[in-house]
Amino acid sequence: MTQTNTTPSRWQRFLDSDFFYHFKRDKVAIASFTIFMVFLLLAVFAPLVSPTNPYDLMAIDIMDSELPPVWMEWSDPRFLLGTDNQGRDILSTIIYGLRISLTIGLCAVGLQLILGTVIGLSAGYFGGRIDSFFMRIADIQLSFSTMMVAIIVSAIFKASFGSEFYSQYAILMLVVIIGIAEWPQYARTIRASVLAEKKKEYVEAARVMGFRSPRIMFRHILPNCLSPILVISTVQVANAIMSEAALSFLGLGMPVDQPSLGSLISIGFNYIFSGAWWITAFPGIVLVLLVLVINLLGDWLRDVFNPKIYKG
Length: 312
Known about the structure:
This is ABC transporter permease. Helices cover 69% and strands 0% of the residues. The protein is mainly alpha-helical. It has a single domain (93-312), classed as MetI-like (MetI-like fold, Orthogonal Bundle).
């Protein structure tokens, strides 16, 4: 009688993992992940699920401006959450704004991750002058607040290339600005992990086998530093979205014809005291909820990857 060994699939191994086991038992993590996925799917499929296209000037009527939500007097059933000062449907602008805010947040974190990983690995692995040089740059940048760095870089971009060029490439500019402002968080965390990992036997064995430094850094050390990277990335997505919203509110972010959640709040702030509170309130609620669920997921990941404090 021959016995066949069936190797479980990668998906089956994930379902049997401690990570998924703890996730199933945590109601806050499940709720946060569900809400985040709803926001993500709305952003991805915005043209399909949005009632109107806020970019289509033919679909916008200025006579529909500042209409209240449907449960208030003088509302229009076509606009569930009312309209803004240009006659755009608030629900549609929120859905498209989610797409822009999440795009900027995820891409900016991707840039931070690349810069911080390369710099942190190099500083921790090589040490000496390379370590001192990169860490002093990180220390100098950390002495300024993220918003200060972002405002300075944004102002330099606008002064150098002009407001029209900045508006045309606003998403790319914000990704670069926020990415440059936040990479030290990754670099310092990864450096600390590398300093602990490079003294272990598997690194010494890789050196003895003649592997080059880049291969040891990226193929051997980096996979053992993924836990803190994942936790930081979750928190940094929320920080990047908030940074974009703050820059847009200050007029240094997305232009008014490309609504992000931050620019929608900025537009509506001018009308909040005239009674049209919904222009700011609903984008603000969505922004707060989005950042909240991302932060809750980040806190849960931090606890799961730290067995000393996890009690789930």
